[in-house]
Amino acid sequence: MPSVSIESEAIRVGEHFSLSFKRTLRIPDDGTEHQTPPNFGVFPIYRVSDYADRLPESWRREGGVFIPMYQREALYLRFENEKPWQPCAVKVALGQINAVSGERETTSLSTNQQDYLVCPPQLWLDGINSGRGSVRQFIAMPLGTGATVEGALSGKEEFGGVQITIFAPKPGAFPDSPPAVRTALRPTALRRGPVASGREMGLGAGGTVKEKILPDPHGVETWDQKNLAQIHVRLLNSAEFREVTGLEPPATTVNAETYRAQQFPWFPLYGEAVQGDVAPAEKLAQARTIADRDAERKNSPAEG
Predict the structure, then answer these.
(1) d(CA 261, CA 139)
(2) By the 8 A CB rule, do 193 and 24 touch?
């Protein structure tokens, strides 16, 4: 099993793979396919074990980490590999719902339809697989509202958070020496802004981002399904975060001025060269978005 090391801004798995959680703009859910929004800094990561006496028994039993978010804030997952010629397979689930296939999460890789990412070439993931060349953005929403992907597809919200499983390649699958590579970067802009609060959360589906879920160029047989690491990531709102840690949640770097500069409406807080992509998941493509839920209620909830 690959080793897992928790750092303040990243989770390292094995000798050269790491993932982090990035702040980004919440794009409008307006039927438009938007370009990938920029990176606005990193969410800090905290170990469950460091605050075990203030957390539920189920959290202590499962271990893992938590990050502070504000209700209706957006994030994306960033994957980095110091040896990109030795990739790994990564499964991402939202409340135990697979973000690529829309099926209930398992600890194996599907041999029928790809339900995982290969990192690299996949360097980030902004949302759930919802169509050819697009995803629906990850947006933090409270459990119990029915607005999370878990609630939309399972009819209940009992897990929340994000579950990540990393599979190492089989021995000898990739060379030891590196070929010439280039690393893709997202534009970065940092600004300080106002904050808001909520409660324990999961991830819902927001606006549409033009982004491919890239096909596995190596084949599912490349990955060692007995050599894996699992990480459970909880999402805490500002009130929960203060209660658990005694710390003030970090201020978001995204504010109204930032949205205006990007020509997006302000939401107050409450791989082009690679050919092909993974087929859209019918369940995820039909999942109700946060905007759908708001419309069903006939009045948008206060966002702030």
Answers:
(1) 21
(2) no
**Residue reference for tokens 């859910």:** 29
Query: Contact, 212 vs 36, CB < 8 A?
Result: no
Contact indicator for 304, 237 with CB cutoff of 8 Å: no
* pLDDT at residue 191, as a whole number: 43
* Segment 271-294, tens digit of pLDDT: 434 456 776 677 777 676 777 777
Distances from the Cα of 114 to the Cα of 1, 121, 165, 267, angstroms: 22, 15, 14, 34
C-beta neighbour count of 191 within 10 angstroms: 13
CA distance 204 to 32: 18
Contacts of 20 (CB under 8 A, 6+ apart): 9, 10, 11, 42, 43, 45, 77, 78, 80
Q: What is the mean pLDDT of residues 49-60?
A: 90
What is the phi-psi region of residue 58: left when phi exceeds 0, alpha when psi lies from -120 to 50, beta otherwise?
alpha
- Counting every residue, how long is the chain? 304
Of residues 197 and 29, which shows the higher confidence score? Answer: 29
Please give the structure tokens belonging to residue 94.
Answer: 């939202």
Helix (H, G, I), strand (E, B) or coil at 284: helix
140, pLDDT greater than 90? yes
Quick count: other Cβ atoms within 10 Å of Cβ 186? 16
| CA–CA gap between residue 83 and residue 48 (Å, rounded) | 29
First to last CA, the chain: 42
In sequence order, the β-bridge partners of residue 165 are 91, 230
